[in-house]
Design brief:
9 helices, 3 domains, Tetrahydropterin Synthase, Chain A, alpha+beta, three-stranded antiparallel beta sheet, about 280 residues
Length: about 280
């Protein structure tokens, strides 16, 4: 922001970050940098501007994206008056308020650019969009001696319904990736299991069943279902056939109170005798 100094004082002072022009009867006369300077009282006036980097906030702007979604966007512009005699003169003479003019241009360019972008691009490419705004804005402000150094997009607000829809879409994408990862893991495990089965024989598939049972047991369940074919597969072929024959013969009898503890360690004659005794009791 520029300020002027006139009146009866013949001297004015500039700090290191300040530059001035001297107007005589309202017309440009000369430029001055830092230090103490002389002016003719009541005839000449000094107008001073800072040349350090400054910033201005771009307030929330309502706009509609290319895919017809209403959004609110705000940001911040970083700029400075270029430290040359001609640029200092231009920022005072060519425009009434260079800071306000910079903000107006930034607002206009931001709204125009948002309307040319889809929402996904707006959310994912903030830095690229900021650079594009900076390039266009710098071209506009060059005429009055201002250098735009950077433009940052700070907040992009979208309707609440759209936020929920985007959250649901993101959740679905995470689930899809999780299923894909699990499927890949199952594929790798099946390949390894097949290799193991080829080494240990035709009962290698039971390794996978045991792994599943182990996973179920880790869930602190009080009941674990144990496949009967797995029990049979863990005994000899004759024992498995013998047990099946016995069970087929007594399939219609309630044996819920029958203690079969240790049966698998008996030979077939002992098993048959024990079952027959129980049937006679019934």
């Amino acid at each position: 922001m520029s300020f002027s100094l006139s009146g009866p004082f013949p001297f004015f002072f500039n700090d290191e970050w300040e530059r001035s022009i001297v107007l005589r009867f309202g017309s440009y006369e000369r430029s001055r940098k830092s230090g103490a300077h002389f002016k003719i009282p009541f005839v000449e006036k000094a107008v001073t501007v800072p040349v350090y980097e400054d910033s201005v906030d771009v307030m929330k702007q309502e706009a509609i994206t290319k895919d017809n979604i209403p959004v609110e966007v705000d940001g911040v512009v970083f700029f400075n008056v270029k430290d040359t005699t001609e640029d200092v003169k231009d920022c005072i003479v060519n425009v009434g308020d260079y800071e306000k003019q910079t903000l107006n241009y930034a607002t206009s360019i931001l709204r125009d650019l948002v309307g040319k972008k889809e929402l996904d691009e707006l959310l994912q490419k903030r830095d690229e969009i900021g650079d594009e705004i900076q390039e266009k804005l710098d071209g506009r402000t060059d005429s009055f001696g201002v250098k735009v150094k950077d433009v940052e997009i700070q907040n992009i607000n979208i309707p609440e319904k759209m936020e929920r829809a985007m959250a649901a879409e993101a959740e679905a994408e995470r689930n899809r990736r999780a299923r894909r990862t699990n499927a890949q893991a199952e594929l790798e495990a099946s390949v390894k299991l097949r290799q193991a089965a080829e080494i240990i024989g035709d009962k290698g598939y039971r390794m996978r069943t045991l792994q599943t049972l182990d996973s179920v047991a880790e869930e602190n369940s009080t009941i674990v279902t144990f496949p009967t074919e797995l029990v049979g597969g863990m005994t000899s072929g004759d024992t498995e056939k013998g047990l099946q024959d016995v069970l087929d013969n007594v399939s219609d009898i309630d044996l819920s109170s029958f203690d079969i503890g240790g049966m698998e360690d008996m030979d077939m004659d002992d098993v048959k005798e024990k079952v027959e005794d129980k049937m006679e009791e019934i």
